[in-house]
Design goal:
The complex is a heterotrimer.
Chain A (H helix, E strand, L loop, with lengths): L1 H30 L7 H18 L4 H27 L4 H23 L10 H4 L1 E3 L4 E3 H23 L1 H11 L1 H6 L4 H22 L10 H4 L1 H11 L4 H21 L6 H13 L10
Helix pairs in contact in A: 1-6, 1-9, 1-11, 1-12, 2-3, 2-4, 2-9, 3-9, 6-7, 7-9, 11-12, 12-13
Chain B lengths: L1 H39 L4 H23 L8 H16 L5 H23 L4 H21 L1 H4 L24 H22 L2 H11 L1 H6 L5 H26 L9 H14 L5 H20 L1 H18 L3 H10 L12
Chain C lengths: L4 E10 L2 E11 L4 E5 L6 H9 L6 E6 L2 E2 L5 H6 L2 E3 L12 H12 L14 H13 L15 H14 L4 E5 L10 H9 L6 E5 L3 H7 L2 E6 L2 E6 L1 H4 L3 H8 L10
Parallel strand pairs in C: 3-8, 3-9, 6-7, 7-8
Antiparallel strand pairs in C: 1-2, 1-4, 4-5, 9-10
Classes of the chains: A mainly alpha, B mainly alpha, C alpha/beta.
């Protein structure tokens, strides 16, 4: 029973970390219809910024997160203007190639500046202690990640369903030309959405660094995982991303606990099975 | 109008004749380049043989992606299937090289059949994800089944018997290289036939507009599946060649990295021409050999920059650039419709 | 005289919206039928239901006495139920000759052959030339479709349909987008269609309708509101109402 609880808690926390990173990708793909394989690269950049801020500059955890998010978004702006804009509306293969190219460059440059070693982000005292929740003690960091995930999900839902920006966003998703004609500044909507997506990736990269360690190959190593999550959940769907992350987090964590020698075999088998049954993802929209 | 029609009909044989000539020249150039490599780099034949093996993999991707429009990042699963099949057969006593190649082809086409059946259930991104999941699955399976595959250590010490009983596969790699070159030329010629057959035309149509193909009364799935099988055979032969020439089979032959690199090579050379696959492979692996020895991360940055450049400036890859330069005026479309 | 082609009670609902209501229609061999109606009447939906691109909520499609309702689109084409598209769907990098050759080979079941040649295929070259000649496309037979005039592309659409030796042909606005200088060529092609063929044409160009059709069916809000001779169409009250609107006789649409 203890094992089941441990698995469940780890899976939930891991799933939430995945969710925070991937929901941005889901939105990018659902809204701008861009297959962004470089999404993980932005999460990685954020991890490096946070690590540098916390370890080398001695700033606090909260400050590190803040700087990481701001820094990554700032870096993403010229990339969006110069590179991503060229691939909106282009065929999938083209987008895949361009974003893989960006990923490779980021990996190479990161290694050049920071070296190949793993970078940790030191947690503040308050988060490294175990917390007693009655039936179990859980590392505070796990709870922190879960809380972040829930807040992000709730905040995004609110943004999309209840705010003005959300309405414009949904209009642009449904019919960009019409929205444009109705006076919605779709270029701004795209740019802001992209920034939000990157910002979330950055947040996820930092808080999820316990599960997904920061090193130069991060962007490539987890590219597949992020892509899989979005395909399984259905691009553009928040509930889909939540379900996919929790499910895949559970499969992955269970596999690691119970059958470590099988590695990721069952993870990929599960992905194939799910995508075969739900080719558009759990909650995907028909194109 | 009658006179013009007559002239058109008369023009027919020579335009088909032109194509024969162009292909004959092309194949001759391949043979010449291969032989040049043999004489110019006698100490690097092992590397060159690996280039040929990977070229077969890249050709197989061209069939699926360049001619049928199915993007895939999992083709290494078929390459690895061929490599491991040949390796396991060799370790179990089957050492005749042509038989091993055939085994590789069969294993590759079986894997291609499986991969196609799964991948064709989905479209777009989901399809791509399936291709990645499949190659990763194969990778994990190969890792796990270490009793057969040697796990992360791989299969080693493959003793291949002499070709035709005469030509030994030695450390210099001469037999392996010339064998590989001959294999490549034969496969290339066969593929040229295939893509200029009605089947090839049908695939091109499916790539551009599957709805139109269906409105012509043709099912799409069986045609694509057939191409997956053919593509699998080619990739499998490449894997078997790699196994024979290096005499080891490792997990890297069934990796996502290999698939991605191979796709980059194809894009570099240009999709849908078969020649592009060869050009891209040679250039990519040539540069990799030089730059990677200095610093593997610099190589990665270079490849990334190259990819970005190709997407922005030369969507048709190098063969697209060459076509423009030679003025044959072929507009290379990436998924357009009339 | 048994009908070559028949639809009975064809209905399609999307959720609560009835897009096609109880459409029944019969066509004997040699029929020349025009289907007209205001925009949004459901003409293209009807064609999609007939060809099998959409499954009906109710009703049957019968071809040559055989119920083909449960068959998919590809099987229906093979049984002789062929359509053209309102917006041309052609392969911009292929030539008209290649289009027709591929279609003929497909009809013969030889399209997925690996061992035979595609270009210079003498088996079918004669038939391909004949079809291109009938449509006046011989002089552009070897040019890429992306480079020929739109009117000629529309003709090629018809050519592909003919190459399939259809029993029933559904033409979705064959003259759409064609400059009026090229319309006579389309008309000529339509006149030369085989006599035994049953043809249903959707069109907005009323000149073409009157010259081509022996019978006219008018569709409005998903149902047939008139069926009869071309000369009677313009005088019918319900038809005028559907096109022009008439508040005194307003009907709810949905």
């Amino acid at each position: 029973m203890q094992t089941v609880l441990s698995i469940a808690i780890d899976a939930f926390a891991y799933g939430m970390a995945l969710f925070i990173i991937c929901i941005g990708l889901s939105l990018t793909m659902g809204l701008m219809r861009v297959v962004n394989l470089a999404h993980g690269a932005f999460a990685m950049i954020a991890g490096y910024i946070a690590s540098y801020a916390a370890r080398d500059l001695g700033l606090g955890y909260a400050m590190a997160i803040f700087l990481a998010i701001i820094g990554t978004v700032i870096i993403s702006i010229p990339l969006e203007r110069l590179l991503f804009r060229r691939i909106y509306g282009r065929p999938e293969l083209t987008q895949v190639l361009m974003t893989i190219g960006i990923t490779f460059c980021v990996i190479g440059i990161t290694n050049y500046f920071f070296g190949p070693t793993l970078k940790t982000i030191p947690l503040p005292g308050s988060l490294s202690q175990p917390v007693d929740v009655g039936f179990k003690t859980i590392a505070a960091h796990r709870l922190f990640v879960m809380a972040c995930g829930v807040i992000v999900a709730g905040g995004l839902w609110y943004l999309i369903e209840r705010t003005d920006f959300g309405i414009k966003l949904r209009a642009t998703v449904d019919n960009a030309a019409m929205a444009d004609a109705l006076g919605v500044r779709t270029q701004v909507v795209y740019a802001v959405s992209f920034a939000i997506a990157i910002g979330l990736a950055a947040l996820g990269g930092v808080v999820g660094a316990e599960f997904l360690p920061i090193e130069p190959y991060y962007a490539l190593r987890y590219m597949v995982t992020f892509l899989v999550v979005v395909s399984v959940g259905g691009a553009g769907s928040i509930p889909g991303a939540v379900v996919a992350c929790l499910l895949l987090g559970a499969v992955d964590t269970t596999g690691r606990y119970l059958m470590p020698e099988f590695g990721n075999f069952f993870f990929y088998a599960a992905v194939i099975a799910i995508v075969c049954v739900f080719p558009r993802g759990f909650f995907g929209r028909a194109q | 109008m009658q006179v013009i029609a007559h002239t058109e009909r008369v023009a027919a044989p020579s335009s088909a004749g032109n194509r024969w000539l162009r292909d004959a020249i092309g194949v001759s150039l391949i043979v010449a380049a291969g032989l040049a490599g043999y004489w110019l780099f006698p100490d690097n034949l092992a590397l060159l043989t690996r280039v040929i093996a990977v070229a077969l993999l890249v050709l197989s991707i061209d069939l699926i992606t360049g001619y049928c429009g199915v993007a895939t990042l999992g083709q290494a699963a078929l390459f690895g299937a061929g490599a491991y099949a040949a390796g396991i057969a060799c370790v179990s006593g089957v050492t005749e090289p042509l038989t091993l190649i055939t085994i590789g082809a069969v294993a590759g086409s079986a894997a291609g059949l499986l991969m196609g059946t799964i991948m064709l259930r989905a479209h777009g991104l989901a399809q791509l994800v399936l291709s990645i999941a499949i190659v990763q699955l194969f990778h994990e399976a190969a890792n796990k089944a270490s009793a057969y595959t040697g796990g992360s250590d791989g299969l080693a010490g493959l003793m291949v018997s002499p070709l035709f009983g005469v030509f030994e596969f030695d450390l210099w790699g001469q037999t392996a290289y010339l064998f590989g070159l001959a294999l490549l030329v034969v496969v290339f010629v066969v593929l040229k036939f295939i893509v200029s057959s009605p089947f090839g035309m049908l695939c091109r149509g499916i790539k551009q507009d599957p709805i139109r193909i269906r409105a012509m009364g043709s099912f799409v799935f069986p045609v694509l599946l057939k191409m997956f099988v053919i593509s699998g055979a080619v990739a499998g032969m490449g894997g078997a060649l790699a196994a024979i020439s290096t005499q080891v089979v490792g997990l890297d032959s069934v990796s996502f990295e290999l698939s991605a690199n191979a796709l980059v090579m194809l894009v570099l050379g240009g999709l849908g021409t078969l020649y592009g696959a060869l050009v891209g492979t040679v250039i990519f692996m040539g540069f990799e050999h030089i730059v990677s020895a200095i610093n593997p991360f610099h190589w990665m940055t270079m490849v990334g920059a190259l990819l970005i450049a190709v997407v922005i400036a030369a969507p048709g890859g190098l063969s697209g650039v060459l076509e423009k330069v030679s003025g044959s005026g072929k507009r290379v479309k990436t998924g357009g419709r009339a | 005289m048994s009908d070559l082609f028949r639809v009975e009670g064809l209905t399609k609902n999307f959720g609560g919206l009835a897009v096609s209501r109880n459409i029944s229609l019969a066509m004997p061999a040699g029929e020349r039928l025009a289907l007209i109606g205001p925009n949004g009447a459901g003409k293209t939906t009807f064609v999609n239901l007939v060809t099998g691109q959409l499954q009906p909520s109710a009703g049957r499609v019968v071809l040559n006495g055989e119920d083909v309702t449960s068959l998919g689109a590809v099987r229906r084409v093979r049984k002789g139920l062929v359509r053209t598209f309102q917006v041309t769907r052609l392969f911009s990098e292929m030539t008209p000759e290649e289009h027709v050759t591929l279609t003929v080979l497909q009809r013969e079941g030889k399209a997925s052959r690996i061992l035979s040649r595609f270009t210079g295929n003498s088996e079918v070259a004669g038939e391909v030339e004949g079809i291109l000649s009938t449509l006046g496309l011989l002089d552009v037979a070897r040019r890429k479709v992306g480079e020929i005039a739109y009117g000629q592309q529309r003709l090629l659409e018809i050519g592909i349909a003919l190459a399939l030796r259809p029993k029933v042909l559904l033409l979705d606005e064959p003259a759409a987008g064609v400059p009026s200088s090229d319309t006579p060529r389309i008309e000529q092609a339509l006149e030369r269609l085989p006599q035994s063929l049953a043809v249903l044409m959707i069109e907005h160009d009323m000149d073409l309708v009157f010259r081509f059709a022996r019978r006219v069916v008018v569709l409005a809000a998903g149902e047939i509101i008139f069926e009869g001779l071309p000369s009677q169409v313009a005088m019918n009250e319900r038809v005028r109402e559907a096109y022009l609107g008439n508040y005194a006789h307003a009907r709810s649409v949905a």
